[in-house]
Amino acid sequence: MHFLLRISTRMMRLRKQSIGLIILMFIVISATIAFVLEPDTFHNWFNAFYWVMTTMATVGYGDYFAETIGGKVFTIFLYIFGIGLLSLVIGKIIDSIAEMQRRRGAGTLSFRGGNHVILINWSKKTQAAVEEILCYLPECQIVIIDETGRHPLEYMDQVHFISGDASSDEILLKANILEAKAAIVFGDTRIDEASLIDGKSLLIASSIERIAPKVHSTVEIMQEKNIRNFQHIHVNEFVLSHDAISRLAVRSALQEGNSEVITQLLSRQHGDDIYEIPLNVAWKTYGEAFQDLLLQGATLLSDRNDLSINRKLDQPIPTEARLYIVSDDETYRRIKG
């Protein structure tokens, strides 16, 4: 018994490829021995192979069985060692699955997918962003990068976690930044000083821009004055952290119901939303686009960040225009075609 335990312990230490090769050789040799011992029982080598597999996996189906003393002794050998080897394989598989789950939770597994969204620095805002992204794009893959040692949303299969410093090339490449759709850098709320928070965000944004300049980047800024420090790198969007909340609170106090309208536009989970639509060749002016969209149940809002197009309805729509509308999801899908 001690001998068998020593062998099992040594086998468990072997690599999966080595164990697989040993078991394959064991099965092939066992099938050959069985056929040599019982040629009249099995008739051909494949039947012997089939018998070895069923004997190792269960205790055989009874369609083939050894008739000679030598064959029966060999069958007993298979019961002891064959089933033991198969159990070892099953144990290795279970161990590998458990190890994968452990590494996923610890954030040490690299992400191999593409067209995903990367969220950097975990907080309540990051969690809200995950919910909003999945509401907008239910099939989207999300990668969270944070310096905590545990996956914050381990129960969500679509959310992958990378543990480490997001300004590190190694960590960004682990998150497959080169094939990402977008990256959002949230301020690290574990830092007390606002300038230091923006400094860390600047460092991360610089790394993203250097490694993957084509990835759409959005950075949360704690202090508006620090935006000028980002001028030497390309950042697609800046979001002022506390500024937006303060303005929303003031508007809510001075104009009742104002905040509800803005909240609806900000969240896909409530009411109508803002969508970008493709240009229609039939639209020559903003006025034509406005009237056509209105008849379809949508409101033309802006061309890029220009919200004044309702005062230039007679002007032609430039070829590089990016039109945004306010509508429900059904109307947007109908317009988009």
Please give a structural write-up.
The chain is of the alpha/beta class. It folds into three domains: 2-105, Helix Hairpins (Orthogonal Bundle); 117-245, Rossmann fold; 272-336, no CATH class. It is 50% helix and 13% strand. It has twelve helices and nine strands. The strands form two sheets. Strands 3-2-1-4-5-6 form a six-stranded parallel β-sheet, with helices on both faces. A three-stranded antiparallel β-sheet has the order 7-9-8. The protein is elongated. Pfam families: Ion_trans_2, Slo-like_RCK.
Mean pLDDT: 84
Distance between the termini: 71 Å
**Highest CATH level, the class of the largest domain:** Alpha Beta
Order of helices and strands: HHHHHEHEEHEHEEHHEHEEH
Question: Total number of β-strand segments?
Answer: 9
Poorly predicted ranges: 1-5
Strand portion, in percent?
5-15%
Question: Over the alpha carbons, how many angstroms does the gyration radius reach?
Answer: 32 Å
CATH architecture of the largest domain: 3-Layer(aba) Sandwich
Protein structure class: alpha/beta
Question: What would the principal axes of the Cα set say about the shape?
Answer: elongated
Could you state the oligomeric state of the chains shown?
single chain
Any idea of the CATH topology of the largest domain? Answer: Rossmann fold
Classified in CATH, the superfamily of the largest domain is: NAD(P)-binding Rossmann-like Domain
Largest sheet entry: 6 strands, parallel
Proportion of helical residues: 40-55%
**Count of domain modules:** 3
